[in-house]
Amino acid sequence: MDDQVLKRAESELAGWTNPVARLLQAIEKNEFELFCQPIHSLTAEGGYPMGEILVRMREEERALLPPGEFLPVLEHYRMMPQLDRWVVRNTVKHLAGGSRIPRFTVNLSGQTLDDADFPRFTAAQLSLNKVPASALAFEIDEADSLNRLPAAVQFAAAYRAMGGSLMIDGFGRRSVSFAAIKALNVAYVKVDGSIVRKILTSEVARTKLGAIMRVGAALGFSLIGECVEEQNVLLRLKSLGVGFAQGFGIHEPHPIKSFATPSR
Fold first, then answer.
1. What's the half-sphere exposure (Cβ side, CA atoms, 13 Å) at 125?
2. Distance CA 137, CA 244 (A)
3. pLDDT at 168
4. How far apart are the first and last CA of the chain?
5. How far apart are CA 115 and CA 152, in angstroms?
6. How do residues 149-169 score in pLDDT, each as one tens digit?
7. Residue environment code for 110-140, b if the CB has 16+ CB neighbours within 10 A, otherwise e
8. Which neighbouring-strand residues pair with 224?
9. Which residues, at least 6 apart from 50, have a Cβ–Cβ distance to it below 8 Å?
10. Chain center to CA of 57
């Protein structure tokens, strides 16, 4: 992690005398909140078949803290597995209670990929709440999938065996390599915003997207265009045959409770 990112985050938390103890307390006392940003289907049926889970932290004087203010500290102190377990536990509970979005995607940190017990924990949460693994997909950042490929492959195999699916996030942010996609046998690939934002103006971006789509057709994974902020970009993705799109130009994140099935 960039030292400057950590320093900025720690400066934001300067009022905490002990950041580690404060973050542990937040996890133990459920002082985080789940938000969801729907993922739009670009097929004829349309709608929101999936939604990405995002996390905010409650602070009495400052309302909700964005992830950039606490995630770097959690990563630095290797506390991400604890947060990821909290997210999975509470996401599964929401699914069990009824959701208008049938599948949620949860970002999995590189540290959690190294946690050999995490697949068992996830299976236990799904079983306890009678939620199928197909209702919960995990997103693995492209960099984490490449840097921790053996651990990522092991986790992917374990979760697919439960009936769950995985996706690569931020694909194409750097060079376009399909090694991790092939090794993990992912169901979805999120095309990075650095490509999506430029598809109207850059031939290089369109060429990259075309290459990803061709490999997707051969390997059987679907594409999600992320960071869609303009209607023209959304229409171009649809015309090119991209299956899904996500971004502030489509739907802003909202508290997960707003997607609950209305009680009768």
1. 22
2. 15
3. 95
4. 47
5. 10
6. 999 999 999 999 999 999 999
7. bbbbbbeebbebbbebbeebebebebbbbbb
8. 190, 244
9. 38, 39, 101, 102, 103, 104, 105, 137, 244
10. 17
Q: Residue 225 pLDDT more than 70?
A: yes
Q: Judging by beta carbons within 10 Å of its beta carbon (0-12, 13-18, 19+), is residue 203 exposed, middle or buried?
A: exposed
> Which CA distances in Å does 212 have to 82, 158, 176?
34, 26, 8
Q: Is 132 helix (H, G, I), strand (E, B) or coil?
A: coil
Q: At what angle do helices 203-219 and 231-240 cross, to 10 degrees?
A: 40
| Among the listed residues 202, 201, 206, 193, the one whose alpha carbon sits nearest the alpha carbon of residue 240 | 206
**Picking from 78-82, 107-111, 171-175, 182-186, which range would have the lowest pLDDT averaged per residue?**
171-175
Pairing of strands 32-41, 244-245: antiparallel
| Confidence (pTM) | 0.91
CA distance 42 to 128: 34
Domains of the chain by start residue, with CATH: 3-257 (3.20.20.450)
Using one digit for the tens of pLDDT, what is the confidence trace for 13-49? 555 667 788 888 889 999 999 999 999 999 878 899 9
Residues 6+ apart with CB under 8 A from 61: none
* Dist. CA 3–CA 72, nearest whole Å: 10
